[in-house]
Amino acid sequence: TVTQAIAAQEASRRNNNWLPPPWAIVAMIVLGFNEFMTLLRNPLYLDVIFVGFLLVKALWVQLDVSGEFRNGALPGLLSLSTKFLPTVMNLLKKLAEEGQRHGNSNTQQNPPLASKSFRSGASEYGGVSSSASSEVTSAENGTEYSSPAHGKVK
């Protein structure tokens, strides 16, 4: 029995490889080629995957998943199910507060410009008025043009 136990342990050590068999690696490469090409064509998917990974990692740390499962699977699942929604809401609230804080710091750095009308802006910058070109007279054929405010058209 001791010899059988030692042989079983050695066989277990040889088979305790974390890599899948070579045929499975080749199958993953062949079958996953279209997903790889999708990521190359549209790298926005990588951003979405990365943000999803960060959110899952934050939830994992906040919920202390490995600590909850020390007492067993069922107590861990029950404990996590009661903590999941409050933890998600807390993370979303922190993200919203951080976004508001970042938004408020941007408005303090860049104060809004005062809006000015064109006429007040024109008078401030050199006194150029647009009414100077409203009355134009052509002396060649005797036709006189005027702005609509004056009402002259010949």
Radius of gyration: 37 Å
**Kindly, what is the distance between the CA atoms of the first and last residues, rounded to a whole number of angstroms?**
123 Å
* Strand adjacency order, main sheet: 1-2
Task: Report helical residue fraction.
Answer: 55-70%
Average residue-wise pLDDT:
75
Enumerate how many helices there are, as a single number.
Answer: 7
The count of strands amounts to 2
Largest sheet: 2 strands, antiparallel
User: Helix and strand succession?
Assistant: HHHHHHHEE
Q: Approximately how much beta-strand content do the residues carry?
A: under 5%
- The structure class reads mainly alpha
How does the overall form come out from the CA principal axes? flat
Question: Which ranges are low-confidence, i.e. pLDDT below 50, for 5 or more consecutive residues?
Answer: 120-124, 127-135
